[in-house]
Amino acid sequence: MNHSSHWTRSYIFLNGVYKWKMLLMERIPDQIGYLVLTEDGAVLTSGGELENDERIANLIMGLITLTDNIDSNAFATNEKFDKMSVTYDDHCYIISLSNKKIHVVKKKLTSDGSPPPAAPQPLVDE
Amino acid sequence: MERNLEKTMDDVINTEGVIGCILADHQGLCLGAKGKASGDSAGLIAAIADQAAKLEPGSKSPIIYLQNDTRQCLIHRQGPVVAAIYKQVSS
């Protein structure tokens, strides 16, 4: 096998993985944007209102660094947070660490702060 | 003024599930801490609130909510005061 076909195959495989992940993030109900970052803050995939938004990515990396060690009195030093959300009146950012990647989803909220009701689904597949 | 802060913190700490609360001013100086909260983290709490506010500079201050399996932490800026509430998750 020559090198170029190996790299082409690797590229096609990785491209497929990222597209699959992109689809998964896009299927989250009420999401209006998403980012997937590496642990050092590089943008892996993005979409919606957060597409290629490196400013938000950098701010979120800063937030994660700050929240690393909040209060040694209340939280043991080995006790880390695994989910963070930043909530505004009508939308929120949900940030979580999974599979060594930082997932950020921007979601819409209704006026009472709860997620908007899902569209009615037919009970029986037509 | 201190009496109001003390009373507010007492009300918060007596709420079910709350294990600590801390108030900081806009510079990150500690205004008061109750329960399992250290005054040393006042600066950090204010820095977190400032950093989160930079996400959308034109909007109202957001509520920052951190959680793991056993604990929750809420941080919010209201005017010049930043408050953090630490909660124990009941299983």
Topology:
The complex is a heterodimer of chains A (126) and B (91).
Chain A (H helix, E strand, L loop, with lengths): L2 H24 L4 E8 L4 E6 L5 H13 L16 E5 L3 E8 L2 E8 L18
Antiparallel strand pairs in A: 1-2, 1-5, 3-4, 4-5
Chain B lengths: L1 H12 L4 E7 L5 E6 L6 H12 L9 E5 L3 E8 L2 E8 L3
Antiparallel strand pairs in B: 1-2, 1-5, 3-4, 4-5
3D structure, described in words:
The complex is a heterodimer of chains A (126) and B (91). Chain A is an alpha+beta fold and 126 residues long. Chain A has one domain: Beta-Lactamase (2-Layer Sandwich), CATH 3.30.450.30. In chain A, strands 2-1-5-4-3 form a five-stranded antiparallel β-sheet, sandwiched between helices. The longest helix of chain A has 24 residues. Chain B is α+β, with helices and mostly antiparallel strands and 91 residues long. Chain B has one domain: Dynein light chain 2a, cytoplasmic (Beta-Lactamase, 2-Layer Sandwich). Helix content of chain B is 26%, strand content 37%. Chain B has two helices and five strands. In chain B, strands 2-1-5-4-3 form a five-stranded antiparallel β-sheet, with helices on both faces. In chain B, a hairpin with a 3-residue loop joins strand 3 and strand 4. The chains are: A alpha+beta (126), B alpha+beta (91). Chains A and B meet through helix 2 and strand 3 of A and strand 1, helix 2 and strand 3 of B.
The helix count of chain B comes to 2
Amount of helix of chain A: 25-40%
Oligomeric grouping of the chains: heterodimer
CATH class of chain B: Alpha Beta
Overall geometry of chain B comes to globular
Count of spatially separate domains of chain B? 1
CATH homologous superfamily name of chain A? Dynein light chain 2a, cytoplasmic
Largest interface: A-B, 27 and 33 residues
- Main sheet attributes: strand count, strand direction, barrel closure of chain A: 5 strands, antiparallel
**Strand proportion of chain B:** 35-45%
Q: What name goes with the CATH superfamily of chain B?
A: Dynein light chain 2a, cytoplasmic
What number of structural domains do the residues of chain A give?
Answer: 1
